[in-house]
Design brief:
The complex is a heterodimer of chains A (109) and B (122). Helix content of chain A is 0%, strand content 45%. Chain A is mostly beta strands and 109 residues long. Chain A starts with 8 loop residues before the first strand and ends with a strand. The mean pLDDT of chain A is 96. In chain B, 0% of the residues lie in helices and 55% in strands. Classes of the chains: A mainly beta (109), B mainly beta (122). The interface between A and B is medium-sized, with 27 and 24 residues.
Chain lengths: 109, 122
């Protein structure tokens, strides 16, 4: 069982907003920054958010990240069918381990 | 533009050693103070960090795999490699290589290779 908890699946209507939660502990999210990855079907993960809330070049501002205490959230506004993917949060844990959430499969209705 | 490409056998027998290589192009593996890493994903499953290394040869392994993992770097060929010994069916996964940005409180992987599926089966 992962040290980071994510809901296995979420859904929202096209054009709407969704927030994907990632719950951790004081040993990981509580003291280290969080990154988020998007994995489209059949492809490799791609960095969406790093350092809790920063977007790499080329990532639209529809994607946002935040962190509070031992939890982090990925927000996506103006949902598009192309946003259907698995989303993973990740961070460093003080057990000397990189940890990822179990992933959230997003369906756009 | 930095690109990573995994290579290696797609099929490994149980109890044997899995060996995959990541070829880096578009930048030197020795530049920029970056780390390099391996992440794996079993079919239908989530991501699991395997380990990371620096161009100097310093290595950092997932504690749960540490006993079986060896990572190395060849700066002359601009590539790094992963060996996982005594494999079982549970090691069947897509193995991704990625550049790791790791400093102070910042830790993330970007970019990623396309991944290579390694199946453990007799």
């Amino acid at each position: 069982q992962s040290l980071l908890s994510q809901p296995p699946s979420m859904s929202a209507a096209a054009g709407q907003k969704v927030t994907i939660p990632c719950s951790g502990r004081s040993s990981n999210i509580g003291r280290n920054s969080v990154s988020w990855y998007q994995q489209l079907p059949g492809t490799a993960p791609k960095l969406l958010i790093y350092d809790n809330n920063k977007r790499p070049s080329g990532i639209p501002d529809r994607f946002s990240g935040s962190k509070s205490g031992t939890s982090a959230t990925l927000g996506i506004t103006g949902l598009q069918t192309g946003d259907e993917a698995d989303y993973y949060c990740g961070t460093w844990d003080n057990s000397l381990n990189v940890v990822f959430g179990g992933g959230t499969q997003l369906t756009v209705l | 533009q930095l690109q990573l490409q995994e290579s290696g056998p797609g099929l490994v027998k149980p109890s044997a050693t899995l060996s995959v290589t990541c070829i880096v192009s578009g930048d030197s593996i020795s530049s920029g103070g970056y780390y390099w890493g391996w992440i794996r994903q079993p079919p239908g499953g989530g991501l699991e960090w395997v380990g990371s290394l620096y161009h100097s040869g310093s290595t950092y392994y997932n504690p749960s795999l540490k006993r079986r993992v060896t990572m190395s770097v060849d700066t002359s060929k601009n590539q790094f490699s992963l060996k996982l010994s005594s494999v079982t069916a549970a090691d069947t996964a897509v193995y991704y290589c990625a550049r790791r940005h790791w400093e102070e409180l910042s830790d993330y992987f970007d970019p990623w290779g396309q991944g290579i599926l390694v199946t453990v089966s007799s």
